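Ligand-bound model needed. calcium ion.
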Amino acid sequence: MAWLKSPTAFSHMMRRIGIDADNRRGTSWGPTFLLATPPLVAGVFLLPVHWLFKLAGVALVTLCSVYAAVHTARQLRHRIAEAEMHREYAREMEARSRVDPVTGLSNRVGFEHDLACMMEDLPLGTKLTVMWIDLHRFIETNNSLGHAVGDRVLQEAAERLRANVPDGAAISRFSSDEFVVAAKLASAVKAQEIASALRDALAQPYRVKGHRIESGSMIGVAAMPDDAITQSGLLQAADLALYHAKASGPNEVRFFHDSMTRALARKKEIEAELRAAIQRDELSIFFQPIFDLRTGRIRCFEALVRWFHPEKGELYPDEFIPVAEDTGLIITLGNWITRQAAKAATSWPEHVTLAVNLSPVQIKAPGAALGILAAVRDAGLAPSRLELELTENLFLEDDENTAAFIDMLSAEGIHFSLDDFGTGYSSLSYINRHPFRTIKVDRSFVSGVNAATCSEAIIRAVAEMGRTLDMEIVAEGLETIDQVHSVRAAGCTLGQGYYFSRAVPDFTAAMLLAQEQSRLDRVQSSVVHPIGPEPMHKKAG
Ligand code: C2E
Ligand code: CA
Ligand code: CA
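Prediction:
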C-alpha cells in the first residue's frame, strides 16, 4: 500500500489504470467518455435500437464511475499532500524547539537529546564529560548595557566555546548565562586541559559596540561513569561542582567530588531545620559590644544571630547564614533580626548605636530599604542610631540598586560600615564611592598583629586613611591586651573582640551598660579606664 502514502506513487498507479488524477496530460478515459456519450444518448432518442440503448446505459454508468474515481483520487491526493506538509512543518518546529535562537547552539531540550545519543555509544574506557559553565557578571552587563550588548556577549562566548571544544562535542546554552558542554574524553587530564582552555578563552574581555566588558566564568565538571551513571545524575554532579566553583569566585574550575553530595545533603538538612526553627522561635539575637579605644566606653553593639537547636545545641551563623542566603530565607530572617535588634536598642542610652549585618541577598530583595526603615520606625529607634554592616562581596556585583539602597537609607540618617575589610578585594574605590562612616578591619589582620609586622603596617595604613577621611576604624577580633595596645597605637579608634566581651543576650548587654554607667558615676567621669573595662567574657560566658 505504499502507493497510498506517496502522492507521486499514487498518481503513477492511477495513470497505469488509465486515470490521470491530475488531469494534466488530458488523455484520460474520462474526456473520451464525455465526448462519446452525447452522440450515443442522441442516438437512443433518434434511433431506438436495442443495442444502442444498452451501449448508452453502459456509457452513462462508466462516466459516473470515472468521475467518482477521479474525484476521490483528487481528494486523496490532496489529503496526502496536506499530511506530508504537516509532517514537514512538525519536523521543522521540533528542530527549532531544540535550538537557542540567540547563539544557534542547542538549548536544554536539544542538549539532553544529544547527551542521550552520546551515552548510547560510549566506548569502553571513555569518559562522557560534562562541563557546566556560568558566565561571571553577565546579568550585570545585560542590565547595565542592554540586551543587544548582552546578546553579542553570549554569541561571542558561544564562538569561543565552539573554538575550544574537541570534535564531536555537544554545546548548549542552558539558561540566560549558563552553557553546558559534553564531550567523550579519554581521561580526567584531558578534561582538565579542555576546561582550562574554555576558562581562559572566556576570561578574555569582550568588545561590543565600543564597550570593553570584563566577564570570566566558573566551570563545574563531572564525568560518566566515574561521578554518575545516569544522564540526570551526570548533570546534577556537574551542577553541584559548578555551585562550588561559584562559591570560590570567577575563573574557577571545579571537578565533582563525593564530598560535594554530602555538603548538599547537609545544606538541605539545615534549610529544612532553619525553616522550622524560625517557626518555633529557636533563633535569638545576641549583642557584642564595640568599645571606644580612647574613652573605654561602649559605643555600639553588633547584633549577631544565634540558633539554639533543641537537640544539636548551638549552631553557628557561619554554617547557617550561607544556607539562608542561598535559599532566600535570609530575607525573612534579616528583617526579623533588624526588627528585634532595633527593639532592644531602644532601651540603651542615646549615644550607643546598633550595628546590624546585611547580606547582599537581602539588599537585592525588592523593597529592602523600605523594610529596614519600617523596622526602625516600628521599634521607635532613631535611624541615626542604626549602622548597617556591608561586606565587600556586595560591591563585586556593584549595580545601581546597591547604590540606590545606600543613598536612600543614608538620606534617612542610617549609617554604613564596611565589614571584614581586607578579606576581599579591598578596593578603595568602594570607600570613595559610598558614604561609609566606619571600616572594620578583619580579625585575620588583628591576630597577625605582633606576629607579623606586615599586618600591623596594613592596620596602620587603614587607620591613617580613616583619620584623613574622618572615618571610624574598628579592629575586630581583639583577644589579648597586647592586641588592644597594638591596634590602638596603630590608630584604630574602636575595638571589638573576646578580650572585651563575647556576644551576649539583650539583658546582659543592658547589664554591661548599667555597669559602665555606675563605674562612670563612681569615678565621676574624672578617670576612665584607658582601654575599656576589664575583660567581660569571663563574666558573660
Ligand atoms: P562578622 O560580622 O564578622 O561577626 C563577627 C564574628 O566574629 C562573630 O561571629 C563574632 O562572634 C566573632 N568574634 C567576635 N570577636 C571575636 C574574637 O575576639 N575572636 C574570634 N575568634 N571571633 C570573634 P559569629 O557570631 O559566629 O558570626 C559569624 C558571621 O556570621 C558574622 O561575621 C556575620 O558575617 C554572620 N552573621 C552573624 N550574625 C548575622 C546576622 O544577624 N545577619 C547576617 N546577615 N549575618 C550574620
Ligand atoms: Ca559584622
Ligand atoms: Ca566582621
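The chain has a mean pLDDT of 86.
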